[in-house]
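Input structure tokens:
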């Protein structure tokens, strides 16, 4: 009989958020996979679990740890995977282990619980129906610029994780990319003594968090961009002229412009008919 891998969510600050099922899953595990046995040892001790066997899973040990975890599960053991805080595999180790265990044809389940991104989103006051989680965005270079540009155009609410040292710079870069009046919620030290949720515009957030050195853990929730403004007559005419100049027929130019600018085909056709004379080559 084979065992299984169980991803167990742990608190993001407040130990009162440990669920009964998390406690039972950790107590029942033959092996506890964690990022740091000293850090997780404190939680495990708090839960009254005596002398567990740990296997350390981090970016350096992940490959060896996967082999050990797969072997243990194949031999019938139950492995509980936790991280320093929150839900494993969310900006934390876990996904590689899950993939390895599934590839070996073994069972994976989870005990759900705290995740900073979910808590920050639901208390942000921003739309929750559709959202994007970006984790930590790249620290510098073209990758960072591209990610910021994507966030600026994203119509869904975007959630990012950030460190206290970089949060003001990231808010400033977001203001440059999205405009300083874009709405934002900055959630700090969730579930902890100094929990704070600041809500307003990016300009206001920069002012607020520049006033004194930011401390603690941060989640930034950014409002989505409004839908793109509908194309005006001048833009439609310009696009039609370009399509006609490229040799498209009136009908094809109208189809092309209707799709490209998201305007009614009838409108694009009417403009294409009226522009034909001005754009046709002699
Ligand atoms: N796995 C975790 C989760 O489920 O949210 C995330 C781990 S990631 C290494 C750590 C980042 O999560 C922090 O830098 C911060 O951006 C965010 N975070 C974690 N705990 C938080 C808290 N209590 N308050 C605000 N942000 C938190």
């Amino acid at each position: 009989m084979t065992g299984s891998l169980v991803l167990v969510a742990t608190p993001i600050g407040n130990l009162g958020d440990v669920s009964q099922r998390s406690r039972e899953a950790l107590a029942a595990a033959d092996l506890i996979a964690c990022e740091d046995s000293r850090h997780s040892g404190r939680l495990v001790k708090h839960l009254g679990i005596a002398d567990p066997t740990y296997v350390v899973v981090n970016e350096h040990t992940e490959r060896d740890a996967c082999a050990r975890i797969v072997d243990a599960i194949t031999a019938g053991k139950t492995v509980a995977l936790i991280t320093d805080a929150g839900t494993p595999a969310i900006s934390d180790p876990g996904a590689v282990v899950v993939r390895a265990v599934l590839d070996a044809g073994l069972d994976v389940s989870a005990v759900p619980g705290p995740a900073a991104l979910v808590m920050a989103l639901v208390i942000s006051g921003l739309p929750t129906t559709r959202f994007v989680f970006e984790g930590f965005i790249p620290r510098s270079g073209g990758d960072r610029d591209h990610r910021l540009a994507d966030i600026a155009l994203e119509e869904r609410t975007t959630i990012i994780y950030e460190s206290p040292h970089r949060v003001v710079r990231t808010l400033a870069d977001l203001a440059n990319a999205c405009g300083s009046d874009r709405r934002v919620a900055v959630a700090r030290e969730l579930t902890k003594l100094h929990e704070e949720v600041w809500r307003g515009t990016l300009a206001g957030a920069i002012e607020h968090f520049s006033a004194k050195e930011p401390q603690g853990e941060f989640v930034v929730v950014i409002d989505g961009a409004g839908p793109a403004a509908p194309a005006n007559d001048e833009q439609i005419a310009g696009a039609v002229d370009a399509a006609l100049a490229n040799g498209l027929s009136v009908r094809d130019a109208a189809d092309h412009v209707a799709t490209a600018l998201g305007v009614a085909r009838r409108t694009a056709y009417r403009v294409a008919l009226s522009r034909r004379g001005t754009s046709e080559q002699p």
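The chain has a mean pLDDT of 94. Residues 12-13, 83, 85-87, 90-92, 115-117, 161-163, 187-192, 217-219 surround S-adenosylmethionine (CB under 6 Å).
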